[in-house]
Amino acid sequence: MRFDAISVENSSRLRPLAAAALVGVALAALGYWAGVPHSGLALFAVGIAVLIGWVLLFTLLGWRLLAARPETSRGSIQAGLASSARRWMAMLLAVSTLSLTVGGFWDEVWHRKFGLPFGEDLLWRPHLLIYFGLLVPPALAAVSLFQALRQGRGGLRDRLQADHPLTLLWLVGGFLLFTVPADPVWHLIYGEDISAWSLPHLVLMLSAVMVAVLGVLLHQSTLPARHTWGGLRPSSAFTLVFFLGAASITAQVLIGDFSAANPAAIARPIWLLPTLITALAVLLGSLVNRATRSYGAATAVGLLTLATRFALVQAFAFPEIPTGAWLPLLPPLMALDLAYAWRARRAGGAISAPAAAAWVLPGSAVALALIPRWYSYVQFRGFDIAVSLLTGLLASMAAAWLGGMIGDSLAAATGVSEKPEGRASRVRWEAPVMLAIWALVVIFLIATAAPPTHTF
Predict the structure, then answer these.
(1) For residue 74, what are the CA distances in angstroms to 71, 155, 345, 392, 409?
(2) Are 280 and 250 within 8 A, CB to CB?
(3) In this structure, are residues 194 and 38 in contact, taking their beta carbons and an 8 Å threshold?
(4) Mean pLDDT, all residues of the chain
(5) 177 Cβ neighbours under 8 A, 6+ residues apart
(6) Predicted local distance difference test score (pLDDT) of residue 276
(7) Is the separation of the CB atoms in 350 and 393 below 8 Å?
(8) Which of 190, 162, 245, 157 is closest to 46 using CA atoms?
(9) Using one digit for the tens of pLDDT, what is the confidence trace for 431-449?
(10) pTM of the full predicted structure?
(11) Minimal CA–CA distance to 396: which of 362, 426, 432?
(12) Terminal CA-to-CA distance of the chain, rounded, Å?
């Protein structure tokens, strides 16, 4: 079994396009609820068309490269990277993901403290940390592409298709080269965002998730295959780092925009917040459980995400960002783990999307009870509860299908090495050392950063 266009063996090659369509619809819906400017609608529509068109172009290119098999046999192409190189790339992508996590939180804190209209914050340290996180994948893509073109054999398309994880790295790297300047250009043209759900922000969020998934993929390709399901293993600890970053980034953008200080949030349908919380939990939980072939991984990611959020709030001494606002994510994650544990102990396999959604429904009900504690303007009544549970059920099915498909593809990337145990043992000390060095550098940057001298 091999990684093939985020689908597993015997799966339809059209599934990635269906997944892309699902993501596109979700982004369009979020963009609609973000609001549109009162003037300049024609120019605004042009900007949206250009941004969405670029996303679709890369989606089509990725489908063309990943769905088709190279005409030349893999053994004669020799365009891939050794496992040691993949391991280092995975560690650098972990640094990239964590930089985006910390940089995003730091940026939010400083914006809340000092305001700063667009332009004056362009090169402050939180943004520099974010830029670093976004530019690591393009740098890795450039190095690996140069090596593949210089040392590989076969035609250009064969070399690009020879190693699908590397092909995805090149695609994500090229996409990020467009994504990084897209947000500043958007602000220059259209001014300040109405909410955090502006289309460039959503694309940046999606890009950060792609970086995390790419890191998992490269890391998984250095691990032995796990064919049976079971509890969370120590060898999956490094994988959790990527999902921690993905969960933090998506929750900050999607759930954080429901702050009571945001007037756009109050005007949204009451069922939207619980539906997003449930969908996000099921998507990430399905991803990590299916990728690691473990139950308990979803809850572990949820707890790590909350712990990291708490640590950042304490480090920046900014209690105005409540950690508990993300607590409603835990009940759906725990319910999903119970579903996978029950299935693994009886049938030893994954769980279908409808079954996962049914198992998560009680967790969604618990999340509904927790939400008003931190979102005082959200008060559910009988009809609101019914609608929220129904929309949450439908969103859970879509999220479980998407997360399961991508997670199975990540799991299929394992078992490609001759001596996985030796490489895994090296990761036990290389990854912690690199992450420790990164943490020291970030602490130094934060401790020595000079905040703006004036507020707005």
Answers:
(1) 9, 12, 38, 44, 19
(2) yes
(3) no
(4) 80
(5) 138
(6) 95
(7) no
(8) 190
(9) 788 888 999 999 998 888 8
(10) 0.86
(11) 362
(12) 56
